[in-house]
Specification:
The complex is a heterotrimer. Chain A is mostly helical. Chain A has one domain (about 5-250): ABC transporter involved in vitamin B12 uptake, BtuC. Chain A contains 12 helices and 4 strands; from the N terminus they run ααααβββααααβαααα. Chain A has helices at about 5-30, 35-50, 60-80, 85-105, 130-155, 155-165, 165-170, 175-205, 215-225, 235-245, 255-270, 280-290; strands at about 115, 120-125, 125, 205. By secondary structure, chain B is mostly helical. Chain B has a 3-stranded antiparallel beta sheet with strand order 1-3-2. Chain B starts with a strand and ends in a 9-residue tail after the last helix. Chain C is α/β, with parallel strands linked by helices. Chain C has one domain (about 5-255): Rossmann fold. Helix content of chain C is about 40%, strand content about 25%. The two termini of chain C are about 35 Å apart. The chains are: A mainly alpha, B mainly alpha, C alpha/beta. The interface of A and C includes residues 153, 154, 170, 171 and 176 of A.
């Protein structure tokens, strides 16, 4: 497989991991997050710092990176999730801008020049590059999806779904809204942190502008296009949004316009996403596939 | 921009540096108020729409950008600034209502992030359209604003600054009169309090919503043209920062409170100019709005003038 | 005399000068069906919201089984064994009927961080949930998406959910609203069966015939204040109550007929 395709596939896999995290927050628990890229960035910068300044290996640093990102998610989630839904969207946008500004201006994070020289991931002295690194990302993606699947089957997940549907009714059956929103937020940001660590070791150079607000919009688009709240939606969304710019490369100047118009049409006419219930895609597929005898 | 001129009365001896500091301060203050006034004009439409529809109309910044471009276009075609302003207001009103009818209204039954994403998609699409149609370069808007110059405490206030003050005051005043003294205003206030009740009282809520968009978009057009002339810059992404800064402003002012948004805008304009001029903060000035917002949320979540 | 299950003393709730509930005191004895009546705007649902923790009282106390509960948040009050329905039904629309009840079954798990990670799709849980659905007559619709149900079934679903939670006290808010004749009779039987099982019921009801026939005792509110408390017969004859419902002319009319 050509190097270019592998790179694309790796980026898609990393985006899918981060999008799955966002799906837990937005799709499972029904909370808007328009600042998810900030946590992706926190994961990436933590990994970069531990690798370059402390000399830790990827494997040693990983639990730390995930924990740190989840911890920041907890800290920022506590004030954000106590406010009304409308506030939450704006607060998360604000978090994205502020975190990006911090990375861009504070010298410890390399400032506007970013951080470079991040080593590759090594497995038993064997440096992973190209296809092998892609398989590593794929493996993590499968773990993340398994975690999401398990979440849907445990009481924590059921509580999040109930919360998403009707907060007052959920409270009346013993579900603490703040606690479970926070739980979803922490899980989602932890997944973003994992994606960030992989990203840092893949790109080997990161800067604040990689984690700006447009990426948050992109991630949310992946979740929306694929199907909010579904298990495979974020993966499908990551694939589509990852491939689209390449597909439209011939009309390169009109690419972004096409892409944003597509997003607009998608959200206007199919807000449930491609895998959502009653989506046109599902109905078409239902017609095409043989009906089961009932 | 404001020029600084030393003015030393002969009868009193002041140290030169103190006069310079004073004049610098006054200059910054006047700049800050002007910036705040512009923020207020841009935020106004967003606050009005949120108040009546509970939708975060990020695409309002797209209307503002279209206002600047349309104003420039009409000005270049006719050479008359007033015509350009009126033409631009008409265009923006149409765009605003189109967004409301074709995008927001059908999406009302969905969770709020759905119209929000649509709004963001509209903003990004408009940016791209402007870039493709008018080019990515910064265009100039060399119009003369027919407003007088003043001298305040030895500082010259240019016609542009005077224009900003006068136009903002006029718009706010007009809006105040309409909302408090007319039938339309009463209907708007009723609909923003409780649309179901307003409907039951015979008010055509949908029409009121559309009128709100017309008003907000027309004001955005004026704001866009004013900014274009003030900074002499019109470019495709000129709406990006205002889009998110105005969101922070309506939170600080109190979600649903239009006067609160105006006050917050004025305060932010002054804070940005004075703080960045005098204090040495490592963060960019645009982050101030969000820091203020998060601070407000933690201190007083209903904002400056919002109600619980 | 047995300790009352729930006692409200001097309970008040003011909203910006509007006294929705004003110095109301009453008690609920274990095992009884108490009806909370009153014209529209009397403050009945506000009382429910005060008991279930949605509102904090402006003044007064609520004691449940000897424990002060005013000011506790709704999810904590639910864990005490108080379940409620809502006047405007709030089903978990995208979940199935049985999933709605299963969500309520989680009440014993949600408070502890360690217990929320086990699976809910177990045979045991399903059986328990189906049992609750059978009691309200919805077992046949277990897999149907809750959002598709008509109002009558949605009310029953609310009750099933409340049953899962309300092992000690059930708060039913206008559960008979919008039901047809047969459904009303079924629901009356259900509530009597619930009481027979040892649970206490507090219900808000507009339908006077149902309230008089079903409840052991009644509390009547008007404009936030308590008008009367007693057996159905006592309340029916109470002049203040008649005046509140029928107006002064009505009272004279009734007095003239008596």
């Amino acid at each position: 497989m050509s190097g270019y395709l592998i790179t694309l596939a790796t980026i898609i896999a990393i985006n899918a991991i981060v999008a799955c995290g966002l799906n837990v927050i937005v799709g499972f628990a029904g909370q808007i997050s328009l600042g998810h890229a900030a946590f992706f960035g926190i994961g990436a910068y933590s990994a970069a710092l531990l690798a370059t300044k402390a000399g830790w290996t990827f494997w040693a640093a990983l639990p730390c990176v995930i924990a740190m990102t989840a911890f920041v998610g907890l800290l920022l989630g506590i004030p954000s999730l106590r406010v009304r839904e409308d506030f939450l969207a704006i607060t998360t946008i604000g978090i994205n801008f502020i975190v990006e500004a911090v990375f861009n201006n504070v010298e410890f994070f390399g400032g506007a020049l970013g951080m470079g020289g991040i080593p590759r991931v090594a497995l038993f002295d064997f440096k992973l590059r190209g296809t092998e690194f892609f398989y590593l990302c794929l493996a993590f993606l499968i773990i993340v999806i398994a975690a999401c699947w398990w979440l849907t089957r445990c009481w924590a997940g059921l509580a999040c779904f109930a919360l998403r549907e009707e907060e007052a009714a959920a409270a009346s059956v013993g579900i603490s809204p703040v606690r479970f929103k926070l739980l979803a937020f922490v899980i989602g940001t932890a997944m973003a942190g994992l994606g960030g660590a992989l990203y840092a070791h893949f790109m080997r150079f990161i800067s604040a502008s990689d984690f700006a607000f447009p990426l948050s919009v992109s991630l949310l688009s992946m979740v929306v296009v694929g199907g909010i709240g579904t298990l495979w939606g974020p993966v499908l969304g990551a694939v589509i949004i990852g491939i689209l710019p390449e597909v439209f490369r011939p009309i390169i100047d009109y690419r972004i316009l096409f892409y944003t118009t597509l997003l607009l049409l998608m959200i206007r006419f199919q807000p449930g996403g491609l895998l959502g219930e009653n989506s046109a895609a599902r109905r078409v597929l239902a017609k095409m596939l043989p009906r089961s005898q009932s | 921009m404001i020029n600084c001129r030393l003015h030393r009365p002969s009868s009193i001896q002041y140290p030169v540096s103190r006069i310079q500091n004073m004049q610098l301060f006054v200059e910054q203050l006047l700049n800050g108020i002007a910036t705040g006034a512009i923020y207020a004009l841009v935020t106004l439409g967003l606050a009005l729409v949120y108040g009546i529809m509970r939708i975060l109309h990020v695409a309002h910044a797209a209307v503002y950008t279209i206002g600047a471009y349309a104003g420039l276009l009409f000005f270049n075609l006719t050479g008359n600034l007033l015509l350009a302003v009126l033409g631009s207001m008409a265009v923006c009103a149409l765009v605003g209502v189109a967004i409301e009818r074709f995008v927001y209204f059908p999406l009302l039954k969905h969770p709020p992030f759905v119209p929000l994403i649509a709004s963001i998609a509209i903003l990004l699409s408009v940016e791209e359209l402007c870039r493709l149609i008018a080019g990515p370069q910064i265009l100039t808007f060399p119009a003369e604003l027919p407003f007088p110059e003043f001298l305040v405490a030895g500082v010259k206030v240019t016609s542009t600054i005077t224009a900003v003050y006068c136009i903002t005051a006029a718009v706010l005043g007009l809006l105040w009169v309409v909302t408090t003294k007319t039938e339309l205003g009463r209907a708007m206030r009723a609909a923003s309090q409780d649309m179901a009740v307003a409907d039951a009282m015979g008010i055509n809520s949908h029409l009121i919503v559309s009128i709100t968009f017309v008003i907000g978009s027309a004001v955005a057009a004026v704001a866009g043209i004013l900014v274009g002339i003030y900074f002499n810059q019109v470019y495709p992404t000129m709406g990006a920062i205002p889009a998110y800064k105005t969101l922070a402003l309506i939170v600080v002012g109190g979600l649903g409170s239009v006067p609160g948004a105006v006050v917050a805008a004025l305060l932010l304009g002054m804070a940005e100019t004075l703080l960045i001029g005098y204090a040495d903060i490592p963060l960019p000035r645009d982050a101030l709005a969000f820091i203020a917002m998060i601070g407000m949320l933690m201190w007083r979540s209903q904002g400056l003038l919002g109600s619980r | 005399m047995t300790r009352p299950l729930l006692e409200m003393v001097g309970l008040s709730k003011h909203f910006d000068g509007l006294r929705a509930v004003d110095d109301v005191s009453f008690r609920i004895e274990p095992g009884e069906i108490l009806g909370l009546l009153g014209p529209n705007g009397a403050g009945k649902t506000v009382c429910f919201n005060l008991i279930s923790g949605v509102y904090k009282p402006t003044a007064g106390q609520i004691t449940f089984d000897g424990r002060r509960t005013d000011g506790l948040p709704p999810h904590v009050i639910a864990t005490l064994g108080i379940g409620r329905t809502f006047q405007i039904v709030k089903p978990f629309a995208h979940l199935s009927v049985i999933e709605n009840v299963l969500a309520a079954r989680g009440i014993s798990r949600y408070p502890r961080l360690s217990k929320i990670w086990s699976g809910w799709r177990t045979v045991h849980e399903r059986r328990e949930a189906l049992g609750l659905l059978e009691r309200v007559g919805l077992a046949g619709l277990a897999e149907r998406r809750a959002g598709l149900l008509p109002l009558g079934n949605l009310r029953r679903l609310e009750i099933a959910r409340a049953l899962a939670v309300g092992s000690r006290l059930l708060l039913l808010d206008e559960s008979f609203s919008g039901l047809r004749h047969e459904e009303i009779a079924q629901l009356e039987d259900l509530i009597r069966a619930i009481r027979a099982g040892g649970q206490t019921v507090l219900l808000i009801e507009h339908n006077m015939r149902v309230a008089m026939g079903l409840c052991d005792r009644l509390v009547v509110l008007d404009h936030g204040r308590k008008l009367a408390e007693g057996s159905p017969a006592e309340v029916r004859a109470d002049e203040a109550v008649i005046e509140a419902y029928l107006g002064r002319k009505g009272r004279e009319h009734v007095a003239g007929r008596a």
